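Chain A, query sequence.
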Amino acid sequence: MLGAAKKLMAAGILREDGTVDYAAALEVLALASRDEYLKQAVLRFAVENFREDLRRMLGLGLAHVVFRWEQGFEEVEVLRGKR
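Chain A, predicted structure.
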């Protein structure tokens, strides 16, 4: 890990005090998204390390969705089947 930390410092992503340059880190992720293998590696890392956070984030989008049975739904589906 020490070698990787030195490379990140040399690239300006990791500062001497241990903080991260967020803009640089996000730019690296943007570049990674263009390479299919690296994108899959980043996704695998995210799933393995942030599984619960991802579950919560994905669940938030559906938390306020309300499903209602509308009048006429069956008729629309029957008409679609006749096409």
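Residues 2-82 form one domain. The first helix runs from residue 2 to 11.
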